Amino acid sequence: AALEKRVADMELVHACKTHSAVVFIKPHAVTEEVKDLVKAEFANRGIYVLSEGVIPAEEIDQQQLIDTHYGAIAAKAVKQKPATLTVQPKAQAQFQKAFGLSWSDALSKGIVYNAMDGAAKLGITFDELGAKWSTLKKDVNLLKFGGGFYCGKVDG
């Protein structure tokens, strides 16, 4: 136990001097082949795996690890107003091409909503909004602005 603690302390000290990350493989993809692929890809890029392990579902729930991870993404969809979001120039160009007006014009006209306000504006439930959202087509009326950051046009 003492040796494990010393190794863990050394890993922490080293990690603080360099960039570090926690990487997880989604449960449906956890196979030896995927784990080997991730390690190989990291090694090819000079990224070293200091340790690995399994986090039991109970611990994930108790510590709200998934909620914390996806919280920022959920906040964009539900809480943040579109005018407060940072939409990169490339995403703004996609928006213009797909929807025929600029992001700033859509904001000025008040026709861009987060999920909560959009459902209220349409007078529908989140489930009904989800059903509409699931019919959208990527790069047609559904755009990916960034990791977990999407914009779509639903009819009302």
Describe the structure.
With about 160 residues, this protein is mainly alpha-helical. Helix content is about 55%, strand content about 5%. A two-stranded antiparallel ribbon has the order 1-2. Strand 1 (about 140-145) and strand 2 form a beta hairpin. The longest helix is centred in the N-terminal third of the chain and has 16 residues, at about 1-15. It is elongated, with a radius of gyration of 21 Å. The model has no long low-confidence stretch (mean pLDDT about 85).
List keywords for this structure.
156 residues; mainly alpha; two-stranded antiparallel ribbon; 2 strands; 6% strand; elongated
What's the quick description here?
The chain is mainly alpha-helical and 156 residues long. It is built from eight helices and two strands.
Ranges with pLDDT <50 over ≥5 residues?
A: none
List how many beta strands DSSP finds: 2
Please report which band the strand proportion falls in: under 5%, 5-15%, 15-25%, 25-35%, 35-45% or over 45%.
5-15%
Mean pLDDT: 86
What structural category do the secondary elements indicate? mainly alpha
- For the largest sheet, list the strands in their spatial order: 1-2
Radius of gyration: 21 Å
The secondary-structure element order is HHHHHHHHEE
Q: What is the global morphology?
A: elongated
Percent in helix: 40-55%
Distance from first to last alpha carbon: 61 Å
Counted by DSSP, the helix tally is 8
Q: Sheet with the most strands? A: 2 strands, antiparallel
Mind sketching the topology for me?
Elements: H1 2-17, H2 32-44, H3 57-62, H4 65-78, H5 89-99, H6 103-108, H7 115-122, H8 126-133, E1 142-146, E2 149-152
Antiparallel strand pairs: 1-2
